[in-house]
Amino acid sequence: MTQKQRCYWCKRSIEDENDMVVKNINTGFLGLSEQRVAFHTVCREEYDKKKKRETILILSICAAIILVPLIYILIQFLIHSW
Question: Residue 41's domain spans which residues?
């Protein structure tokens, strides 16, 4: 008897194999390792949306960390050059 696959996202068993999607995901520290996991089709879409939001947030924070000091320095330069 084969063991039923469990959805990585919702942890419920996948009853219908037509509803199953297998995807490579990055795991571990800094995503350095990769594993193949099963998802329900809907759960995979939710997982992808969450990961996209997290990526946008991280990039926004990094851009802010770089740009805010540069803008401050530029403003200070402009103020003192008048």
Answer: 17-81
